Amino acid sequence: MPADGFAPGNRLLAALPADVLERLTLELETVPLRNRDVVQRIGRQAEHVYFPHSGMGSIVIHMKSGVNVEAATVGNEGMLGLQYVLGDTLATEETMIQLPGEGSRLRIRVLRAEFDRDDRLRTLLLRYAQLLMGQIAQGAACNRLHPIEGRCARWPLSTHDRVEGDTFPLTQDFLALMLGVRRAGVSVMQQALQQDGLIGYARGMITIYDRPGLEGLTCECYGVIRERFERFFAT
Predict the structure, then answer these.
(1) Spatial separation of the C-alpha atoms in residues 81 and 73, rounded to whole Å
(2) What is the C-alpha separation between 204 and 182, in angstroms, rounded?
């Protein structure tokens, strides 16, 4: 990809110092992010990090019981695979694309070399690591303490923030994975949200009809996480 005229659709890339971005642009590849693609597989060496421009990826934890739980989602505000820049590249979690789109891919060794070289990039990525850890911690508390009604409203809002338009794919299976609940519980909640006129749902596609209504129903965690990200990009 040529350096001249490259305008990143990813907010973390756009936050890089211009000279750092110019150097990395020579190594960035634009790639499709396909639904359900596993871009970092457990037990294998991770080779790339991903900066979504559109779409969304999930960090998924696999339990021995066969239950899978989503630990965090990353859209155009961040990157997938930061942990492999900071430490061992052996993947211990699965990174899966949950919302199709497009992104920039960069070899980990290239980003790690720039991380070691440039204090500004290192500071930015360490701050982002702190932010991501906060998102995971808030999500763990949310899943433990808050009722499914508020959590079920939170995830369409978080996805809506990362996409263009009011309609996007969000299957009941994926929502159940994110919430750590059974699909039947998600189905009941979606029907309730539809009956209240907040969303529409058909064939795996959600349409947001009443965003303020969803914001009034969701738990505090949505606003906490969103405010932290907005503060991060404002500084």
Answers:
(1) 12
(2) 17
Render pLDDT for 17-34 as a digit per residue (tens, 0 to 9): 999 999 999 999 999 999
Q: Are 42 and 114 in contact (CB under 8 A)?
A: no
Give the pLDDT confidence of 170-218 residue by residue, as tens digits. 777 777 766 667 777 778 888 888 889 999 988 888 899 999 999 998 9
What distance in Å separates the CA atoms of residue 121 and residue 114, rounded to the nearest whole number?
Answer: 7
pTM to 2 decimal places: 0.89
21 — phi, psi (to 5°)? -60, -40
Q: Please state the separation of Cα 219 from the chain's center in Å.
A: 19
- Tokens for 82? 């930061």
For 70, phi then psi, to 5°, come to -80, 130
* Type of residue at 165: G
Query: How far, rounded to the nearest angstrom, does the alpha carbon of residue 52 sit from its chain's CA centroid?
Result: 8
Identify the CA nearest to 33 among candidates 60, 58, 55.
55
